[in-house]
Amino acid sequence: MAKAQPKEDVTDAELAVMEVLWEAPAAAPVRGIRERLYPGGGAAQHNTVLKLLERLEAKGFVHRDGSAMTHQFSAAVGREELIGRRLRAVADELCGGSLAPLISGLVRTAQPLKPREIQELRALIDQLDRRRARK
Question: Is residue 34 within 8 Å of 70, Cβ to Cβ?
Fold first, then answer.
């Protein structure tokens, strides 16, 4: 069965929850996520995190494992996938769907790229060229 693609974007609060899930070494319970977001938080913060997780699950961004006594949550969408979706939406909105002006704009207006970042960009371009050559 193919993985369903989330159709909605995430809010800033939901993104904070996703950040915790991406950094977690394994699925996490609501309590663990709450402690990362609201150290020492109480019932109100617990309910907030639970509501955010429920929204993310409904949108397809989070998986819930209810087989244990406490439900465990994990990210269903990786950080790179979410970044790609958001950049695609910005490219569609601002650049008529073209990624080139978006990427060049980011590179030109950002802090100078580090040598490692330049190598990563070159490697990505080389990889894309190889894929295109195979087709």
Answer: no
